[in-house]
Each structure stands twice: as structure tokens, then as C-alpha cells.
Amino acid sequence: MSEHKASPFLLRLMSLFFWAMTLCALAFWVAGTFWRGGLSGVIASLGTGSVAIFATFHIPAAVVGILLWQWQRHGLTKARRVFLEGATLYFMGSVLLGIFLNYLLVSAL
Fold first, then answer.
1. DSSP-derived secondary structure for 2-29
2. pTM for this structure?
3. CA–CA gap between residue 75 and residue 72 (Å, rounded)
4. Model confidence over 47-98: pLDDT tens digits?
5. CA distances from 102 to 75, 95, 109 (A)
């Protein structure tokens, strides 16, 4: 059975979403280092609702990162592949940490 190949349009759309999420996540953490009040100040400035939506989009970003890695890793340069793998690991780790912290919160109640 041959490996599934995604359409070029879907790959471009997924890449656009993934790298936009990566840049937003990087901007969020960098802003947290320079913003008055740190991460709490950034969250207060953006609003808790928009930060919650952004955090929720980490789940599809992790899935898209895995799919892009599966479909494009052979055609990427070494640096781009490392960036893709690092960003995917960040999104997967943040999703797992969020699940674990929610479990701790619910089990403490």
C-alpha cells in the first residue's frame, strides 16, 4: 500500500496555519520577557478569551505539525526540518502539559 500524499493546496494551507501559529507562539513568549508584568501582563493586554482561543489552537497545530513532518520531511532542508520538529514538539508538549494540569485541577476538587 502506497503512502498517502496530500494535495499541494492542502499542504500550503497547513503550512501557512502551522507557521502562523509558530510565529504567534514565539511572539507571545518573547513579549512575555519584555512586557511590563511578564506573561500575566501579556495575557491581560490580549484578553483572557483570545489567549484561551490561541491556546486551544495548539491542539490542531500539533496534529498539523505531525502530518507535515510525515509528508514533507524528506524534501526539507536540515534546518527547516529541525524547525518543524522543534515547533511540533513545543505544540505537543504544551497540549500534554495542559491536559496534565487540567487533570490536577479536576482531581484536586
1. PPP---HHHHHHHHHHHHHHHHHHHHHH
2. 0.84
3. 6
4. 999 999 999 999 999 999 999 999 888 889 999 999 999 999 999 999 999 9
5. 38, 11, 11
